[in-house]
Amino acid sequence: MRLYLVRHGKAETGAEEADRHLSARGRADVEAVADYLADQELKVARVVHSTLARARETAEIFASRLAPGAALEELAGIEPWGDVKAFAKRIEKWDQDTMVCGHEPFMGEAASLLMTGNKNSGAVVVKTGTVMAFSRNPFAPGWQMRWMVKPRLIRGVKRIED
């Protein structure tokens, strides 16, 4: 089973956390990464997202390219303030390749916890639109990061007009 942790694309600025949507740049970044992964023939069985709009919009883009026909699943508890340890316990029961679209600091803490056992280890920095692939460690408890892709690797450096 592969687990793909995704930080939502760049969001519009706004006061209401739950209502912030992807910006034009954020949408373009996520589409570029999703297209790249589809070109690599990556497929997932499930796409899960937080309760916030920008994570749902990110999940919709990835699902359209990597999990056609799969229903999106909303999962409370993976928002920026979510319980990383509860999430780690929950995914131990999962047996299908799953993409989880969420936020910082949750995604960085989740990645750190899965790899090191300490959510505060700072093992990885997760920029907007980044996808990290994990698999269970066959040699020890925990997970291994297999790879990480971020929009700048696919689209190149940010241009002024973006």
List SSEs in N-to-C order: EHEHEHEHEEH
Given the structure, what is the number of helices? 5
Strand content: 15-25%
CATH class bucket: Alpha Beta
What percentage of residues falls in helices of 4 or more residues?
A: 25-40%
Number of beta-strand segments:
6
Report the end-to-end length measured between terminal Cα atoms. Answer: 36 Å
Widest β-sheet, arrangement of strands: 3-2-4-1-5-6
CATH topology: Rossmann fold
- Oligomer state equals single chain
The rounded Rg comes to 15 Å
Can you tell me the overall shape?
Answer: globular
Query: What is the CATH homology-level superfamily?
Result: Phosphoglycerate mutase-like
The main β sheet shows up as:
6 strands, mixed
Q: Which whole number gives the mean pLDDT? A: 94
Q: What is the CATH architecture term?
A: 3-Layer(aba) Sandwich
Q: Can you tell me the number of structural domains?
A: 1
**Structural class, from helix and strand content?**
alpha/beta
Query: Which regions contain 5 or more consecutive residues with pLDDT less than 50?
Result: none
Protein architecture, described:
The protein has helices at 24-39, 53-66, 84-91, 106-116, 151-155; strands at 2-7, 46-49, 72-74, 98-102, 131-136, 143-149. By secondary structure, the protein is an alpha/beta fold. It has one domain: Rossmann fold, CATH 3.40.50.1240. Strands 3-2-4-1-5-6 form a six-stranded mixed sheet, with helices on both faces. The longest helix is centred in the N-terminal third of the chain and has 16 residues, at 24-39. The termini are far apart.
